[in-house]
Amino acid sequence: MVEPIRAPFAAFVGAVLEEADEGSVRLSLVTGPQHADASGRVHTGVLTTVMDSVIGIALSRLRGEGGDHRPHATIDMSTSFYAHATPGDEFVAEGSVIHLVELVAFGEVEARRRGDGELLAKARLTFAIPAARK
Amino acid sequence: MTQPEEHTLSPFVQMVGAKIEEWREGYVRLSLVLEEKHTNPHGVSHGGVLTTLMDEALGAVIASVRGLDAMRAAPHATVEMNVSFLAGPRAGDEIVIEGRALKVGRSVAFGEAEARRRGKDDLIAKGRFTFVMQTARSG
User: Fold this and answer.
1) Which one of A53, A58, B11, B116 is separated from A75 by 20 to 30 angstroms, measured CA to CA?
2) Contacts with A66 from chain B: Cβ below 8 Å
3) What value, to the nearest 5°, has the Cα angle with vertex A73 and ends A129 and A29?
4) Extents of the domains making up chain B
5) 0.90 exceeded by the pTM?
6) Among partner residues B15, B44, B82, which is closest to A34 by beta-carbon distance?
7) Which residues, in sequence order, are bridge partners of residue B133?
8) Do B59 and A34 lie within an 8 Å CB cutoff?
9) Phi-psi region for residue A35, left (φ > 0), alpha (ψ -120 to 50) or beta?
10) Cβ–Cβ of A34/B11 closer than 8 Å?
11) Of A122, A129, A100, whose CA–CA distance to A23 is shortest?
């Protein structure tokens, strides 16, 4: 199942939606020279962009139409980087919402290199959900 | 002060579209006029845009303190990044990212970055980053 990514920036960077169900979401990206940082490795921003979108999409799936009326937004993202990807590598980011209440949601996501499965990065994200209009 | 034109942005940040406004030892400032391509499905800046520019600014800040020779011998890599998003800028807004070094040691460096909207000057995101200098063995 492949469908277009709704976030313009994630699509611009090159992310592909591989799987999205109510439990978890998986995106992937084949990196190239355009994704390099100053040292020639894959820029951390490529990973954080894809990881942020994983949880944003997972939360949209859980919230259904409510997500369109009261759009959620990332308010905190904490990321640890364990290994770097090299342009040419493909990586996969998979994550899920671990807690969702009225005004806030939490998610966890990890990114791995496709092929050897090496863990590249892990992130915890907090999303705010606007209060319903009374 | 070193002139900005002596420095270049990484290929990824060139693709995203930011420019260098100031680059001196311990301080780097970048800016970007947000376009539709930088947004999420709800029309506000994608979190990845700000984390990308903050990491770029701080990587440059650490390089400005360490010098190019030290950086080539043991490139620094981001190992930890904590960013809070306080407001959601939209297409048309110009965002300014300032990066400052907190401490640059022999093997570890710390920096913080702030993003503001030009004109309004309201803080829209704040980040704290940790870098580790990688030897050939640990890289």
Assistant:
1) B11
2) none
3) 135
4) 4-133
5) yes
6) B15
7) B76
8) no
9) alpha
10) yes
11) A100
Which residue, among B39, B56, B78, would best test binding to A if mutated, counting the most A CBs under 10 Å from its CB? B78
Provide ipTM, 2 decimals.
Answer: 0.93
The CATH number of domain B4-133 is 3.10.129.10: yes
Segment A9-37, tens digit of pLDDT? 999 999 999 999 877 999 999 999 999 99
In chain B, beta strands by DSSP E: 19-24, 27-33, 76-85, 94-104, 108-117, 123-133
Residues 32-71 of A with CB under 8 A from B: 33-39, 41, 43-46, 48-50, 52-53, 56, 60, 71
Tell the burial category of A130 from Cβ atoms under 10 Å away from its Cβ (0-12, 13-18, 19+): exposed
Kindly report the CATH number that applies to the domain delimited by A8-128: 3.10.129.10
**Separation between Cα atoms, residue A93 and residue A1, nearest integer Å:** 16
Give the model's pLDDT for residue B139: 42
